[in-house]
Design a protein that fits this description.
One of its GO terms (molecular function) is oxidoreductase activity. Belongs to the flavin monoamine oxidase family. It comes from Sesamum latifolium. By secondary structure, the chain is α+β, with helices and mostly antiparallel strands. The chain contains 25 helices and 28 strands. The strands form 8 sheets. It has a 6-stranded mixed β-sheet, sandwiched between helices. A 5-stranded parallel β-sheet has the order 11-5-4-15-24, with helices on one face. It has a 4-stranded mixed β-sheet with strand order 14-13-12-16, with no helix packed on it.
Length: about 850
């Protein structure tokens, strides 16, 4: 949850001939980065002029490099992400035409990677006037369709940038929107108009996040024939927590005094639980929160240390708001008029003997370290299809250059930084997927909240019914109701339950689920990693280290101790007192759990005195200290999640799946694939599940039963579909088909893939054992699949269409006129088709096996 690196992003340049078009230019990773602008999120009034905000986003993007969310540490040297992106690629509305077909269903990250563009560019119909995608399409078609695009605001590009910071792609739909059914057909002018309306609503709310935006505010702006799209966009944004959320008075007064909806039990009063509870209360649900601790906040814990009638606030858990452009916690801070403190770039390093590290040596080793990560990125991309059984640590050790002792100490400091970023030993991190969330990094500065993040928790707790010191022992869920049993024998009953306990608690098995969770979910819980970060907080009589920096680091001369007090945070300017925090990561974090606090403080003081006393600066004894033990805490069992060897980003999604026909739901940072291990990831997961729970309640209230597929589990059916497509009946280009029965009019399932990386393994690496282990689908998380149902005859006709993928897409959308949807959009009928195909293949397999035995 903690971080101190400065996010970096490509810049965006306007195209004057088309107000709906802009191009992202990503600087060469070998070029030195410019000095990024100070982001406006330091100012609580940021967002009151969204057009100027968009310019700030534009300027911020212009000057810095690609995101690197998992490379923590000193932000003064941003480097390119491991998910290397192209140097120039278009991201435009293309007068609405580039949205026809697959290009309209982009990654939910709101960003487009080089891999996605290279593998999907052949799927995008090239239309006139589309910049780098311009082609030979008749101009008449462009003119006719352009006339249908509505004009809401001349600043459409600026509004797209604001929506981008909220996590929406600039010119396409998210998978979540597709599943919600925001448009009748994915692609085309209707979608363009929806996106314009969506972006405008978001921008309008960002003008003043303390107001409640109503749908009626847009009736005079949106043409009457698009009011249906306005209804959909507004309902989607409100229900999913993109607008009208938070703690402003105008929003709090929307909570109904007398709930009219179902009863919901929320387990855990952390950020996820509080976010969900507030949203559900706004929707009219009766909510009860049960919390095992004596306080709210969970792993966000601000403790006040007192000295001579003065208080200093220290964040012992999540402490840094990582990227404040669009960060919902930054929005809460604005609603509360809290000013944020940007974590400054200056971070000097000190040797084992306390002397400053030579700047040239520092830069050289840091460059080598970053280049090594880039090399490993290329290696994993080149290996093709293999297992994910190699650790990042093994690869780093195998391919690092030879260092002398001082260089090795510096290199180990950077390794400790990675272990801090991921709360994991590098030997346990997946080389293939350790940074799978990097494409979704939020822009903006990384900040401290003066007075601690507990101030946000305190605001979220207001008027939420929380029952403290209620440790959950079991959760019973069925087709009608749920029961939650806590220590002492008390039982809570409701219509639905949301479990927000940390992944560490789920791994520990201290909560019994009745019936047992599906094996699919249990496997994901086991595969994902949940590591450890600890802290020592020291309050001194005065800030002997000064107030001109926020971080400094200290090297170790032994790899197993590299994470012990390797990084210091100065809270002197934000805590209300002279406070230092020493971080403990990697192996050291686990040893720290059993270390005597007096010994721990003594070691920290020896480091500080070794640094400052040679400079003639006396280091006094601290007046108060606190040591964390997050691993030993039975209500957390660790710090935050990571992608361990054998796991992938899919496991976050699996952990987020509800079970029991919409009775038992899950939220928390470890259920958020885009933003795991962050405070805002936890908050957003709460918003997500509040929307899901409201949807299930709506279905039940209207007496519509969710149809079950033959496996009794929609997620199992999704897994079966993925397995079936490993061996499609027909495959051509980016299209794959599964056939039902043998007759021509039988139903077939068509899958279209864009993104991904199909490069064959680099032969120069083929003889190395490590590379044999490395051949994994690293870029599988960059793939995006859309589906449709059609007849077997239509599928075979599609295969014969000339013009490659582009020609087939045009044929599919214009001639066959089918709707491409996400997996969930296929509906229950598709589930029966999937089950039928599975049964047929199982039968064939059994016959084949039988024949083989007796041949």
């Amino acid at each position: 949850m903690d971080s101190s690196n400065q996010d970096s992003h490509p810049h965006i340049s306007d195209q004057l001939d088309n107000p709906l078009q802009f191009t992202i230019h990503v600087p060469d990773s070998s070029s030195p980065s410019g000095n990024g602008l100070q982001n406006p999120n330091l100012n609580p009034n940021f967002g009151e002029n969204p057009v100027s905000d968009a310019k700030t986003v534009h300027d911020h993007f212009r000057s810095v490099q690609v995101p690197k969310g998992k490379r923590r540490g000193r932000p003064r040297n941003p480097v390119s992400s491991l998910n290397q992106v192209g140097k120039i690629f278009p991201m435009s509305f293309n007068n609405g035409l580039s949205n026809v077909g697959v290009s309209s269903v982009a990654s939910t990250s709101g960003q487009v990677s080089k891999t996605q563009m290279e593998n999907s560019s052949n799927l995008i119909p090239k239309k006139h006037g589309s910049g780098s995608n311009s082609g030979n399409a008749p101009k008449k078609i462009v003119d006719d369709m352009s006339d249908e695009i509505i004009v809401i605001n001349k600043e459409a590009t600026a509004e797209a940038l604001i929506a981008l910071t909220a996590g929406f792609p600039a010119d396409s739909l998210t998978e979540e929107e597709i599943d919600y059914g925001v448009v009748s057909v994915v692609g085309g002018i209707e979608q363009v108009n929806y996106i314009l309306i969506r972006n405008h609503i978001i921008t309008r709310w960002r003008e003043n996040v303390s107001n409640w935006v109503t749908k009626e505010m847009f009736l005079d702006i949106v043409p009457k024939h698009c009011w249906g799209l306005l209804d959909t966009a507004y309902s989607y944004l409100v229900s999913h927590g993109y607008i009208n959320f938070g703690v402003a008075p105008a929003i709090k007064e929307r909570i109904l005094g007398e709930p009219k909806q179902s009863s919901v039990i929320v387990i855990g009063a952390g950020l996820a639980g509080l976010a969900a509870a507030r949203q559900l209360m706004t929707f009219g649900f009766k909510v009860t929160v049960v919390e095992g601790r004596k306080r709210a906040g969970g792993r966000v814990y601000t403790k006040k240390l007192e000295y001579k009638n003065r208080f200093a606030a220290v964040d012992l858990g999540g402490s840094v708001l990582t990227g404040t452009l669009g960060n919902p916690l930054g929005i809460l801070a604005r609603q509360l008029s809290f000013t944020l403190h940007k974590v400054r770039d200056k971070c000097p390093l000190y040797r084992v003997d306390g002397k400053p590290v030579d700047p040239d040596l520092d830069r050289r080793v840091e460059t080598s370290f970053n280049q090594l990560l880039d090399v490993l990125s290329k290696i994993r991309l080149s290996m093709g299809e293999v297992s994910q059984d190699v650790s990042l640590g093994a690869a780093l050790e195998t391919f690092r250059e030879a260092f002398n002792e001082e260089e090795m100490n510096l290199f180990n400091w950077h390794l400790a930084n990675l272990e801090y970023a991921n709360a994991s030993l590098l030997s346990k991190l997946s080389l293939a997927f350790w940074d799978q969330d990097d494409p979704y990094d939020m822009g903006g500065d990384h900040c401290f909240l003066p007075g601690g993040n507990g101030r946000l928790v305190q605001a979220l707790v207001e008027n939420v019914p929380i029952h403290y010191e209620k440790t959950v022992q079991s959760i019973r869920y069925g087709s009608d109701r749920v029961q939650v049993s806590v220590e002492g024998g008390q039982i809570y009953e409701g219509d639905m339950v949301l479990c927000t306990v940390p992944l560490g608690v789920l791994k520990n098995g201290s909560i019994k689920f009745i019936p047992e969770l599906p094996q699919r979910k249990l496997d994901a819980i086991n595969r994902l990693g949940f590591g450890l970060l600890n802290k020592v907080a020291l309050l001194f009589p005065y800030a002997f280290w000064g107030t001109d920096l926020d971080t400094f680091g200290h090297l170790s001369d032994h790899s197993s101790y590299r994470g012990e007090f390797f990084l210091f945070y100065s809270y002197a300017t934000v805590a209300g007192g002279p406070l230092l925090i020493a971080l403990v990561a990697g192996e050291a974090a686990y040893r720290f759990e059993i270390m005597d606090p007096t010994e721990a403080v003594g070691r920290v003081l020896r480091i500080l005195r070794g640094i400052y006393e040679p400079q003639g600066i006396e280091v006094p004894d601290p007046v108060q200290t606190v040591c964390t033990r997050w691993g030993s805490d039975p209500l957390s069992c660790g710090s935050y999640s990571n992608v361990a060897v054998g796991a992938s980003g899919d496991d976050y999604d699996i952990l987020a799946e509800n079970v029991g026909d919409g009775r038992l739901f899950f939220a928390g940072e470890a259920t958020n694939r885009r933003y795991p291990a962050t405070m805002h990831g936890a908050l957003l997961s709460g918003f997500r599940e509040a929307a899901n729970m409201a949807n299930y309640a709506r279905v039940r209230a209207s007496k519509l039963k969710l149809e079950k597929n033959p496996s009794q589990n929609a997620h199992t059916c999704a897994s079966i579909l993925a397995d079936l497509f490993r061996q499609p009946d027909v495959e051509f280009g980016s299209f794959a088909v599964l056939f039902g029965r043998k007759n021509a009019d039988s139903t077939a399932i068509l899958r279209v893939t864009f993104g991904g990386h199909r490069k064959k393994p680099d032969q120069q690496y083929s003889n190395k054992l490590l590379f044999e282990q490395l051949q994994s689908h690293f870029n599988q998380q960059q793939e995006f699949h859309v589906y449709t149902l059609l007849s077997k005859a239509q599928a075979l006709e599609l295969r014969e269409v000339r013009g490659g993928d582009e020609g087939r897409l045009n044929y599919l959308c214009e001639k066959v006129a089918v709707k491409l949807v996400g997996r969930k959009g296929l509906g229950p009928f598709a589930d029966s088709v999937i089950a039928s195909i599975k049964a047929q293949r199982s039968s064939r397999s059994q016959k084949s096996s039988s024949s083989g035995m007796w041949s």
